[in-house]
Structures are given as C-alpha cells and as structure tokens.
Amino acid sequence: xxxxxxxxxxxxxxxxxxxxxxxxxxxxxxxxxxxxxxxxxxxxxxxxxxxxxxxxxxxxxxxxxxxxxxxxxxxxxxxxxxxxxxxxxxxxxxxxxxxxxxxxxxxxxxxxxxx
Length: 115
Description:
0% of the residues lie in helices and 56% in strands. The chain is an all-beta fold and 115 residues long. The strands form two sheets. Strands 2, 4, 5, 6, 9, 10 and 11 form a seven-stranded mixed β-sheet that branches. A four-stranded antiparallel β-sheet has the order 1-3-8-7, with no helix packed on it. β4 (33-39) and β5 (46-51) form a beta hairpin.
C-alpha cells in the first residue's frame, strides 16, 4: 500500500532554514502530484506547496519566495526547502500524495521556529 514518511523537522531560530523530506513507497511516484500541508495548534490544516509529476509548482502566498518544493523521482522523494523561517511557520508539516484520485497522508513532522 501507499506509504509516506516525512523527516527533517526540528527546532530552528527565526531566519533559519530546514529541509523536509517525504519518502514514498507503494506507488508510481513519478505520476503522483505531491503536496506539503501544515497545521498549527488550533488552526485548520493548510496547503503550503504542490508539485505535479512533471514539476509544475504552486505555493501559498505566505511562503512564496521563502519555500521551495522539489522532487526526485529516482528516489521517490519530495522535498520542502524552507528558508527565512518565521515563528508563524511553526506547525506540523504533512506530506500528501494524490494518486489515482486518492489522497494519502504521511504522519507529519514538527517544525518549531523560535523568535
């Protein structure tokens, strides 16, 4: 079955950087649209960035110019490079796969940005 495993979260000071990874298995990764979402305490889960199978990307306005989503189809992995992090980026970050019209989610990785 489809499995998504995130890694790379942690504690970082404001202005710092982190790179999240999401390793996928049980699917044909190259044809799957991949996304990163985040959920802060007491807030709804929100879309951060999306990348299509051919590499087209979209970003939430709040992260444009700071975050970059990318994928390595040979490694079945999607990345989220996060630069110039702000305290309001603090959240649990989730990887999502859209595969054959089904959504699959990872378990999430915590990102905490201190001021």
